[in-house]
Specification:
Blueprint: E1 2-3, H1 10-30, E2 38-40, H2 43-49, E3 53-56, H3 63-76, E4 87-92, H4 95-99, E5 107-110, H5 127-134, E6 141-144, H6 149-157, E7 162-164, H7 167-170, H8 175-192
Parallel strand pairs: 1-2, 2-3, 3-4, 4-5, 5-6, 6-7
Helix pairs in contact: 6-8
């Protein structure tokens, strides 16, 4: 689960994220699983939440600085979640950016694959072929943008390590049903490979 709230900063973002992370973890425990929490841009919030990762975009620190800050967290011994275990993701908009990913990055989010469902978009759409190209490079690719049950299987088959969705779930009349449909499409693609 990725916490991405651009309109909040600092204490307000932490206050917003804490109950969401708690609820997600409780739900995962109830079904006998685990949820990974990823926080956009804010290393401090990720550490405070005990998150599993931080997603760095154009308006965040670079991955090398992020890794250095996370290493400092380990050295300082605050201990909630060792900083070196927090994964660093980068936002990319072309397979060449995935190819050029710095070694400090653990994964790349590639977008937009198709027309986003959650916001207006005027630029080029990358398509499934870009996922296939980007997936040949050294780091896992998380595909994002316009992903639905109708195209999730093809995206997974193209080599995506995962998908990130907003609109397909949040704008659905029944978000739980929409989530199940996405999971079923991914499971079906995985079974075929």
């Amino acid at each position: 689960m990725q916490i991405r709230e651009r309109d909040l900063e600092g204490a307000a973002l932490l206050a917003y994220a804490e109950p969401i992370a708690r609820a997600a973890r409780r739900a995962a425990e109830r079904r006998g699983g685990r949820v990974e929490i990823i926080v956009n841009r804010r290393i401090d919030i990720a550490l405070a939440l005990g998150a599993d990762g931080v997603q760095l975009g154009f308006d965040a620190v670079d991955p090398k600085t992020a890794r250095r800050l996370l290493a400092f967290e380990v050295a300082s011994g605050s201990g909630r979640v060792p900083g070196s275990t927090i994964r660093i993701g980068i936002s990319t908009h072309h397979p060449d950016e995935v190819r050029a990913a710095p070694p400090e990055a653990d994964y790349a989010q590639l977008a937009p694959i198709a027309r986003p469902l959650s916001k207006a978009h005027e630029g080029p759409l990358l398509g499934v072929q870009a996922v296939a190209e980007a997936s040949r490079y050294r780091i896992p690719v998380i595909a994002q943008g316009g992903i639905t049950p109708a195209n999730a299987g093809a995206i997974a088959a193209a080599g995506a390590a995962g998908i990130a969705v907003t609109g397909a779930i949040l704008s659905a009349p029944d978000p739980a049903r929409a989530t199940r449909a996405l999971r079923a499409a991914l499971a079906s693609a995985q079974a075929r490979s």
